[in-house]
TrEMBL record:
GO terms for molecular function: transferase activity. InterPro entries: Rhodanese-like_dom, Rhodanese-like_dom_sf, TrhO, TRHO_N. Keywords: Transferase. The keyword Glycoprotein does not apply. SUPFAM superfamilies: Rhodanese/Cell cycle control phosphatase. This is Sulfurtransferase. Residues 140-235 form the Rhodanese domain.
């Protein structure tokens, strides 16, 4: 007798988004109240950080509800350029909703670095980075290095092959690390990267101001956008994320990796400051 076929697994039903935008916000507390009320009404959970320099968010919930919240935000011309990165999960990886006003949406403690007030450092699309890594140099023949701007415990979960890793424990240490390793970047094309783009955007702007003998880029959309557009080429491991999924694989699915206990402790202390 033939056994009945197993039922197909239910598709993941929770939409997770991450997004940031450096843009001048004159009244962050008023914006905080409006966004908090809207997210509560839609039953969303996650973290939204707002500062005078912009917005940084991680939200999860039913797909229609999450996209309705994003549409509300995009109706404000300041946020029309928001381009959330999406992934799906079976459960909501956040325990509550937090919408907070902070001095910076990603803390660097370097007041001269204000991406909302300066032109962006050149942004490199994922496909171009893959092509450069495939060929071993950029289009001008310069050697390409990837510079990881994340915390050391995140790098230990996964990183680009051969990436420069200065073992920083928090992003505010990045400027000091640059000064200690300037010679390491000389004569190269440097592509700074992080999880979703926010840290490497500030990092690239800082690098541009240091009169280095280097061409500087930021990886557009960070690791998560790279996974979405080109998969895991030239990347080993998974990408640590600051929610209950812990890490995503190159298919943007929750990974079965279990970060070390000390890494989880550091992540809990730092969340939701990194992205």
């Amino acid at each position: 007798m033939t056994s009945p076929a197993s039922p197909e697994p239910a598709p993941a039903s929770v939409l997770n988004i991450s997004c940031y935008l450096f843009v001048a916000i004159e009244a962050p507390h008023a914006l905080r109240d409006a966004l908090h009320e809207r997210a509560l009404a839609l039953g969303l959970r996650g973290t939204v950080l707002i500062a005078e320099e912009g917005i940084n968010l991680f939200l999860a919930g039913p797909g229609d509800a999450v996209r309705a919240w994003v549409d509300t935000l995009r109706a404000d011309p300041r946020f029309a350029a928001l381009a959330p990165k999406e992934s799906w999960s079976d459960t909501v990886p956040f325990r509550k909703l937090l919408v907070k006003v902070k001095p910076e949406i990603i803390r660097m403690n370097h007041p001269t670095i204000r991406p909302d007030q300066a032109p962006r450092a050149p942004a490199l699309p994922a496909a171009t980075l893959r092509r450069w890594l495939d060929q071993g140099h950029d289009d001008d023949g310069r050697p390409v290095v990837t510079l990881d701007t994340r915390n050391a415990f995140e790098v230990d979960v996964g990183a680009f092959d051969g990436a420069i890793d200065w073992r920083i424990t928090k992003f505010s240490e990045f400027p000091e690390a640059v000064q200690a390793h300037r010679a390491e970047l000389a004569g190269k094309t440097v592509v700074s990267y992080c999880t979703g783009g926010i840290r490497c955007e500030k990092a690239a702007l800082y690098l541009e101001q240091q009169d280095l003998d280097a061409k500087v880029y930021q990886l557009e959309g960070g690791i998560l956008k790279y996974f979405e557009e080109v998969g895991g080429a030239h990347y080993h491991g998974d990408c640590f994320v600051f929610d209950e999924r812990r890490a995503l694989d190159p298919a943007l699915a929750p990974s079965d990796v279990e970060p070390a206990a000390d890494a989880l402790g550091l992540a809990a202390a730092l969340a939701p400051k990194a992205a």
